Amino acid sequence: MATIKDVSRLANVSISTVSRVINNTAQVAPEKREAVLAAMKELNFRPNSFAQALVSKRSNCIGVLVGDLCGGPFFAQMMRGMERVIDRANKFTIVMSGNHAEARERHAIQALLQRQCDALILHSMALPDAELIELARGDTPIIFINRLVPGLESQCVWFDNRGGGSTACQLLIDKGHRNIAFVTSDDDAFVDGRQRMQGYRDALERGGITYDETLVGRAYADEQGGYVAMGELLARGVTFSAVLGFNDAMVAGAISCLLEHGIQIPGQVSVVGFDDIPYARYTYPKLTTVRYPIEQMGERAAELALALLDGRDCEQWVRKFAPELVIRESVS
Amino acid sequence: MATIKDVSRLANVSISTVSRVINNTAQVAPEKREAVLAAMKELNFRPNSFAQALVSKRSNCIGVLVGDLCGGPFFAQMMRGMERVIDRANKFTIVMSGNHAEARERHAIQALLQRQCDALILHSMALPDAELIELARGDTPIIFINRLVPGLESQCVWFDNRGGGSTACQLLIDKGHRNIAFVTSDDDAFVDGRQRMQGYRDALERGGITYDETLVGRAYADEQGGYVAMGELLARGVTFSAVLGFNDAMVAGAISCLLEHGIQIPGQVSVVGFDDIPYARYTYPKLTTVRYPIEQMGERAAELALALLDGRDCEQWVRKFAPELVIRESVS
DNA sequence: CTGTTAGCGCTTTCAG
DNA sequence: CTGAAAGCGCTAACAG
């Protein structure tokens, strides 16, 4: 790999001049400029980003902590939103997975910090508020996505999960359902699971329906988990005419289980999901769900991170995203 | 951020000694070692990875080029496999998306190279063989995933798409189907699309069935595209009793369209997908598909990259992955 | 406009 | 076992 020195030698100028044309940081005589450009091309020179970062104290990297890149389309969509804006700013994204585990999240954040990321965007589920607040005290700007950390509202991008759960459940109640099952994650670290569940309970209460723990099924928050949880609910022999799910993936699994048991949807059981993942409108039956604008939220988080970096004003930007009910076939 | 100098001062040793305890690169008197450790902790010291990389010529980063992180679970699963092994090696992953576009892929690769990645793993669809061969000539080890570059077999990890397409189509023929539609990508840059289609044609020919262009539907390679392509096929008024798809996502969309038209699956039309994505077993009906072990392939690619880096021998490792038919309900 | 020079934080000889 | 010193490749004053 050629260095700036090689280029300067070949172009018969000093390294400063080379640096100047690389960074366009001062006027350079046209002829020398040409010579430098030619030499760079000939040597296939590309500045060593580490040397640049070392001296300029800027890595041009935004570090992102996600739960699990593979946990369905959720994080992929989030990343897509972030990448779009980070890319536009000519910066790079470094992604690490925390797998929703406290120790791994902590380790990943340290690694990102050690990489001298200019800013961090964290989707942390497992770390306590206190630790996040401590982190935010450091000199690296940090944005939290999908979580509202008390006192750090301006650095958070979050979703009204409770409201969403409530809206979804209310729809079912309005349709006349009284026995509404809830299929959710068995991992209490999922704050949003607890919040959605709270919304569900809010709506039940509003409707004068007593919360019934036996109507709650828990398992891993993916298709298979939904299948399992629904299987247990059925085995338990409880009665319900509707199911609300923590997310669309679980609900897809739950539906699969219901259909296997010959239960008609929405004829016998109505189903509502959460997230509106890409394939929600292609399931059978098409899923009624609560839209979660994760891609836009990813964009917003990235925009906030960049704004913080540049000291730009972003006080007025929206940080709280609202649920929106998408009604399709799976409810009656 | 504390530097090695701060630590050395606090611990009353030279920076060399600090470096030694950081890297465990030589014996250090236990007491000094303790002092250094204590100082590091007190100052919350973390070595500057750029300075390390600059001098050691090692970034500890593996650069990965993917198509589109959001193009369904495919890349996400691939990344999961890679991350697992890269993480285990205590290295980092830098991901960039090429979006299947030539210019963007080229740009992303340059960016990765400039970041001094120790090795690259490329999922390139759009770049011509010649350019990849040229790239591989450089001093950064490169692995190609999901593509067989002529002459670089040992640096490739690929899948027998043609065989898979053939197997899938053969299953349908064995079941007595003669009119088999094919739903695929409208983007010719998808080499694997062309290969799978070739396998489909192989099987047709073997079965003495004439290939019929009007039985091919093309659209963007996701659920929506599958829905659209199937809609066109139906509008075209062609007759078919089975559908083969480029991938499961398209097939899910196609099924949705068929069901909307009141067509029974597999009663009236049998359907076979490709990839065996996570939700394939939770669709209605459950998808018969060709398993694509992308996660393992991601692992293998990462293992190869690391082996190349360390100059380890990996001649014997499997690079070609074989299709495996997964028969579920969607076929009769 | 241009070249010289002093580091950025760290690893790695090379002498003790 | 330990410290001094020489860079890694680059940017940013500073002095022409």
Question: Would you mind describing this structure in some detail?
Answer:
- The structure is a homodimer of 332-residue chains.
- The first copy, chain A, is of the alpha/beta class.
- In chain A, 45% of the residues lie in helices and 15% in strands.
- The first copy, chain A, contains 12 helices and 12 strands.
- Chain A has helices spanning 4-11, 15-23, 30-43, 49-56, 73-88, 102-114, 129-137, 161-174, 191-206, 223-236, 248-260, 294-310; strands spanning 61-66, 92-97, 119-122, 142-145, 156-159, 180-185, 216-219, 242-245, 270-272, 289-291, 320-321, 324-326.
- In chain A, the strands form 3 sheets. Chain A has a 6-stranded parallel beta sheet, sandwiched between helices. A 4-stranded parallel beta sheet of chain A has the order 7-6-8-9, sandwiched between helices. A two-stranded antiparallel ribbon of chain A has the order 10-12.
- The radius of gyration of chain A is 25 Å and the shape is elongated.
- The N and C termini of chain A lie far apart (66 Å).
- Chains A and B meet through helix 4, helix 5, strand 2, helix 6 and helix 10 of A and helix 4, helix 5, strand 2, helix 6 and helix 10 of B.
- Chain A binds a DNA duplex (16 and 16 nucleotides) through helix 2 and helix 4.
Uncertain stretches of chain A: none
Q: Provide the succession of SSEs of chain A.
A: HHHHEHEHEHEEHEHEHEHEEHEE
* Main beta-sheet annotation of chain A: 6 strands, parallel
The biggest chain-chain interface is: A-B, 52 and 52 residues
* Global outline of chain A: elongated
Alpha-carbon Rg of chain A, integer: 25 Å
**Total DSSP E strands of chain A:** 12
Oligomeric state of shown chains? homodimer
Q: Can you list the strand order of the major beta sheet of chain A?
A: 2-1-3-4-5-11
Helical fraction of chain A equals 40-55%
Terminal CA distance of chain A? 66 Å
Beta-strand share of residues of chain A: 5-15%
